[in-house]
Amino acid sequence: MRLLHTSDWHLGRAFHRVNLLGAQAEFIGHLVSTVREREVDAVVVSGDVYDRAVPPLAAVELFDDALHRLADLGVPTVMISGNHDSARRLGVGAGLIGRAGIHLRTEPAAAGTPVVLRDAHGDVAFYGLPYLEPALVKDEFGVDRAGHEAVLGAAMDRVRADLATRARGTRSVVLAHAFVTGGQASDSERDITVGGVAAVPAGVFDGVDYVALGHLHGCQTITERVRYSGSPLAYSFSEAGHRKSMWLIDLGADGTVTAERVDCPVPRPLARLRGTLDDLLADPALTRHEDAWVEATLTDPVRPADPMARLTERFPHTLSLVFAPERAEDDPRLSYARRLAGRSDQQIAQDFVAHVRGTGPDEHEAAVLREAFDAVRADHAVREVAR
Prior knowledge:
Blueprint lengths: L1 E5 L7 E2 L2 E2 L1 H17 L4 E5 L10 H17 L3 E4 L6 H4 L3 H5 L3 E4 L9 E5 L2 E8 L4 H8 L6 H17 L6 E7 L32 E5 L5 E4 L2 E3 L16 E7 L5 E7 L6 E6 L1 H6 L10 E6 L8 H8 L3 E6 L12 H5 L4 H13 L5 H24 L1
Parallel strand pairs: 1-4, 4-5, 5-6, 8-9, 9-10, 10-12, 15-16, 16-17
Antiparallel strand pairs: 1-13, 2-3, 7-8, 11-12, 13-14
Helix pairs in contact: 1-2, 5-6, 10-11
């Protein structure tokens, strides 16, 4: 069976205030063409179909168009909700839409109930695990502590239990939206650390033939059977080095996996430039970036006059301007933001405690801080779901 694995469409998202709807529509067209030309048997979409819980009307219309075009091809599609989606909204009409071959899996309780498709070699069971917010689903899965590994592990127990009841030789595919250990993150994924450590080990998914992951925006291979497709478009300058693609997966009769990357259309390349303003304006080696979306980091010791206006004369698609004067590490003028760069909320809070009283928090105090941050994030997640 040939699968096309994609995820993280983020329909409705802009790139530094640039409307990407046209580029997203171009990707949908490319997806449909790939399904037709490469004789794909099933499409899997591993969450974050939309960029936010209440997407703009134009994004909903594009999604509707995508569903109709996929249904017209007669190729089954399995989709799950991600942490950016409203599971309830995305799942509206799932029963009716399923009759057209578009299978929306947004209910955690249905984790062990697969969509079963057939090919010449027998059944393939597709299990959709929507994004599982630990604080909201721990009771459903009967886990004592709200953690990502615990709830995903419990969901996978249901998958394996169902798979054990099926005919010998039944192959299996799991769709999941999660941060799996070994994956490389970018700046454009929303934090999912509610309930403790966000990353889960790949071993959670043992026992199935292929795991189609969503959430991280870079295409990557965790193991031969566990892969991220990544987002089809770049949504932050941290993705400047990404090659945007989908996975074309051939699932053999014995469950063997053969994978091929299928490139996605690039609306405009990204470039991250760094140097003094005069150097950026004069360097002939930067000519190749003149048509790119540009993030410019200026290292001038004193902020130059009209930097954006001057930059856009050479780089008309400059979208982001950052000032990072080059100074010695012990220079007191180093910004507070630079001192905090790369540190988690928990680390910042613990550093503050150490600054105030001269010693950092003990194990119990660190746990209290962690629980406080988890409670705030969980409250935010509940509010997002309620929207």
